[in-house]
Task: inverse folding
């Protein structure tokens, strides 16, 4: 990841497959917790949009990117727009439980997904980016376009909430 | 196990279809699909802008096409916007309204 910006600045087409390999698991892991049924599509679309953006940037701009935070800004914006678009259009009646994707996951993973869904949107994003994806606080602050202190507070409160949920389950 | 450890275990690998979809969607690789024709099965290779190549499918079209075209190709569905034009073009024996790139 260290020299990827430099290589992208020199040759977007040549280095882009390496960006896909470097980011696809992170993006998918996080988006699966934030948008469970659309994670695969959103991951693909985020990477395709990143490619189009990189093709339009000059080399200096590419070299100055902080790739992980920048990629997550694209992915989270896509997820937000997707949710908004979805809310505006009619939806077919689901013949199955709309959380069916959870049924395909191990029970403990599905249980964690349900717990995460009890958090506020900002707490859930901050907790997922910090502890599922493994981003540092500066990267999360960039991705969420919020101050680092606010992000730290969201992670702290989110973990506290999860702790109290687990204590209530036992 | 701590909550942080449990959350870390929620990481899941992205399916390979994500990588392939991105590379197809950016035009960095081409896709191909097999169609029946009067001369046998043909492999139609395409990118995001249109058909790039048509050739007899043979026994191992993925390897054959990659060698012939000099780039990676993968089995894929053509874009829905013009997918139905491919069998029509094969049946007619001329491209008609099928979008083609300069290589196609």
Result:
């Amino acid at each position: 990841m260290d020299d990827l910006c430099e290589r992208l600045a020199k040759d977007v087409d040549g280095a882009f497959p390496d960006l896909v390999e470097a980011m696809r698991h992170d993006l998918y892991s996080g988006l699966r917790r934030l948008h469970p049924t659309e994670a695969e599509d959103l991951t693909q679309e985020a990477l395709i949009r990143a490619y189009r953006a990189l093709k339009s940037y000059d080399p200096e701009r590419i070299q100055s990117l902080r790739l992980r935070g920048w990629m997550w800004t694209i992915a989270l914006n896509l997820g937000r727009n997707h949710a908004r678009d979805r809310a505006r259009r009619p939806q077919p009646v689901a013949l199955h439980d709309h959380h069916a994707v959870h049924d395909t996951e191990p029970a403990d993973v599905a249980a964690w997904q349900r717990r995460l869904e009890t958090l506020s949107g900002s707490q859930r994003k901050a907790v997922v980016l910090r502890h599922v994806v493994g981003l540092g606080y500066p990267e999360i602050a960039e991705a969420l376009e919020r101050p680092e202190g606010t992000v730290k507070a969201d992670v702290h409160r989110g973990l506290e909430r999860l702790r109290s949920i687990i204590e209530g389950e036992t | 196990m701590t909550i942080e450890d449990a959350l870390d275990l929620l990481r899941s690998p992205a399916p390979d279809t994500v990588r392939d979809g991105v590379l197809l969607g950016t035009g960095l690789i081409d896709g191909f699909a097999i169609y029946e024709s009067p001369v046998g099965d043909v492999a139609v290779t395409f990118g995001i802008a249109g058909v790039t190549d048509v050739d007899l499918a043979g026994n191992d079209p993925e390897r054959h096409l990659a060698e012939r075209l000099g780039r990676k190709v993968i089995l894929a569905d053509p874009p829905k916007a013009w997918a139905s034009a491919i069998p029509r073009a094969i049946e007619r024996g001329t491209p008609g309204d099928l979008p083609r790139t300069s290589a196609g």
In short: The interface with chain A takes residues 3-4, 6-15, 17-19, 21-23, 25-26, 28 of chain B (CB under 8 Å).
